[in-house]
TrEMBL record:
<dbReference type="InterPro" id="IPR000551">
    <property type="entry name" value="MerR-type_HTH_dom"/>
</dbReference>
<dbReference type="InterPro" id="IPR009061">
    <property type="entry name" value="DNA-bd_dom_put_sf"/>
</dbReference>
<dbReference type="GO" id="GO:0003677">
    <property type="term" value="F:DNA binding"/>
</dbReference>
<protein>
    <submittedName>
        <fullName>Multidrug-efflux transporter regulator</fullName>
    </submittedName>
</protein>
<keyword id="KW-0678">Repressor</keyword>
<dbReference type="InterPro" id="IPR047057">
    <property type="entry name" value="MerR_fam"/>
</dbReference>
<dbReference type="InterPro" id="IPR011256">
    <property type="entry name" value="Reg_factor_effector_dom_sf"/>
</dbReference>
<keyword id="KW-0238">DNA-binding</keyword>
<keyword id="KW-0804">Transcription</keyword>
<keyword id="KW-0805">Transcription regulation</keyword>
<dbReference type="GO" id="GO:0003700">
    <property type="term" value="F:DNA-binding transcription factor activity"/>
</dbReference>
<keyword id="KW-0175">Coiled coil</keyword>
<dbReference type="Pfam" id="PF13411">
    <property type="entry name" value="MerR_1"/>
</dbReference>
<feature type="coiled-coil region">
    <location>
        <begin position="88"/>
        <end position="157"/>
    </location>
</feature>
<feature type="domain" description="HTH merR-type">
    <location>
        <begin position="4"/>
        <end position="74"/>
    </location>
</feature>
Length: 277
């Protein structure tokens, strides 16, 4: 049959599944030029190739089939322009979201990589740390149950935009708690905000850990072992005549949710200090 192509031939020529071509026919998007009444076979003309190319092109741009059908029927250039503008905005939004996800993944990969290479376990060090933005909830936390409730409350009350991401949740203890060796509970929970967009949107509700010098100590093991490392920090601060300027910050970088090997668990404890003269 001259200048006519079966649905199988069209499928091979355009690399489009037969099932897809049949669906296009069902929704009146792209119909065969001729159907054999006896066999039910569909046949297409080479003159329809351009139309199929347009459908494929618009589809790859993310334009819904419903809008493609409308455009093919109306052939209105203004409508096409508006449709493309709308989908351009959608693509930009998706790109921005994927960029944020990429940055989070890169940051977490980098942090896990660094955690596996930590060698100064149990040895206090002084670090200059830039300002960090957090959302913080003042809540007494002394059990896993209270921890999970506080996490949900943190997310609901502050409308945290990104998911609670492993490794970005931490806790604080007051100076009084640590000096009195009271490690039964934390006095607050916080979530580090990674994205500039989130920091801007939550500016009125967020808090900051100020830039400055922090005494830091890493330890491996379970959370219940933390008390001995707080004591090491206190002794180090006293020996060097440093002045404590804020609450103690504790963050599990690797815990039971990331590893089943307790020896791989990694927690960091920090506290801002004034180095003096």
């Amino acid at each position: 049959m001259r200048n006519k192509f079966s649905i199988g031939q069209l499928s091979k020529l355009h690399n489009i599944p037969v099932k897809t071509l049949r669906y296009y026919d069902e929704i009146d998007l792209f119909k065969p030029i001729y159907i054999n009444e006896e066999t039910g076979y569909r046949y297409y003309s080479s003159e329809q190739f351009k139309q199929l190319d347009i459908i494929h092109y618009l589809k790859t741009l993310g334009v819904p089939l419903k809008e493609i059908k409308q455009q093919l029927q109306s052939r209105n250039i203004i409508e096409l322009q508006e449709s493309l503008k709308k989908h351009h905005e959608t693509v930009e939004t998706k790109i921005n979201e994927l960029t944020r996800i990429k940055k989070r993944l890169e940051g977490r990969i980098k942090e896990i990589d660094a955690s596996l290479k930590v060698t100064n376990i149990g040895a206090p060090t002084v670090l200059k740390i830039p300002e960090r933005t957090v959302v913080q909830l003042q809540e007494k936390i002394g059990s896993i149950h209270e921890l999970e409730l506080a996490l949900r409350k943190l997310k609901n009350e502050f409308g945290v935009l990104s998911p609670i991401f492993l490794g970005k949740v931490g806790f604080t203890r007051t100076i009084s708690q640590v000096k009195h060796y009271d490690f039964k509970e934390y006095n607050s929970i916080f979530l580090l905000l990674e994205d500039v967009e989130e920091q801007d949107l939550l500016q009125k509700m967020s808090n900051v850990f100020p830039e400055g010098h922090y005494v830091s100590i890493f330890y491996r093991g379970v959370r219940s072992e933390a008390s001995s490392y707080y004591k090491v920090l206190l002794n180090f601060i006293k020996e060097n005549n440093y002045e404590i300027k804020g609450e103690f910050i504790e963050r599990a970088i690797i815990d039971q949710f990331l590893s089943n090997d307790e020896e791989a668990f990694l927690t960091e404890i920090q506290v801002q200090v004034s180095l003096g003269e």
